[in-house]
Amino acid sequence: LDRPLPCTLPEFPEQTQSLIHTLRQYDLQSLGALMHISPNLAKRTLEQIRAFSFPFSPSNAKPALLAFSGEVYRTINPDAYSLEDLLFAQDQVRILSGLYGCLRPLDLIQPYRLEMGTKMATAKAQNLSAFWSDLITDSLNMTLQDEQHPLLINLASHEYAKVIRKDRLNAPWLDIQFKEEKDGELRSIAVFAKRARGLMTDFLLRNRIQHAADLQQFTGNGYAFQPHHSSAHLWVFTRPLA
User: Fold this and answer.
1) Which residues contact 62 (CB under 8 A, 6 or more apart)?
2) Cα–Cα distance, 236 to 240 (Å, whole number)
3) I need a surface site. Which of 46, 57, 65, 131 has the fewest CB within 10 A?
4) C-alpha angle with apex 198: 190 to 5, nearest 5 degrees?
5) CA dist 17 to 13, 23, 92, 110, Å?
């Protein structure tokens, strides 16, 4: 994007700094073992950890929606969004992160690698999921309390979604699954599901979806809503496996 954006700052800077401090205790070999990554990737990750610096500004950080580049984000095209689309995203979308906890799309972040499933112990918790669980759940509750008809639509992977404490969430929860159909059987294929979650996010933003039922009109990449495979709290979208 070549236009200035109304960037914001992440909600949990102290927790992020604490995690960076913990990560800086690892050398190259132990970091690679912790994250199960190659030496080259560990080297790049270590460089990011050492370069990490506060405060964030547009000169040293990017809005989260523009910074991530995994499979989910490859099917989201923020370059094509209007300012109104981005402000709608800021209001309606939250991104879960192993380092930042819970992000809004326009929150500034610096490059990092820290999956939520990383088994990294801290002074406060045995792993990242336990570290973030209450904080993220409370953050979502604060956001949801302003909604007239609150609903959390889950487009996160299981590894990330499980960090949210459903027993403390003050809103109904709707899971979305994408499956491939072949010979009458349905199965989930991770890379396809990731791309589909990004496409549905893009669909939600472009169409300013306000009512969950309108998501059933989603047909990206050939997927279609399947009511007979779905329930009140789980909606399944399928397509024929090419």
Assistant:
1) 108, 109, 110
2) 13
3) 57
4) 145
5) 6, 10, 26, 12
Partners of 180 in beta bridges: 187, 239
The DSSP H or E segment spanning 22 is helix 13-23
Query: Consecutive sets of 10 residues in the chain, 242 residues long: mean pLDDT of each?
Result: 82 97 97 97 97 94 94 92 94 97 98 96 93 98 93 96 96 97 94 96 94 96 97 97 82
Please give the structure tokens belonging to residue 32.
């690679």
Nearest to 24 by CA among 56, 54, 46: 46
> What would the two tokens of residue 175 be?
């899971």
CA angle 83, 200, 177 (to 5 degrees): 155
**CA pair distance 61, 41, nearest whole angstrom:** 21
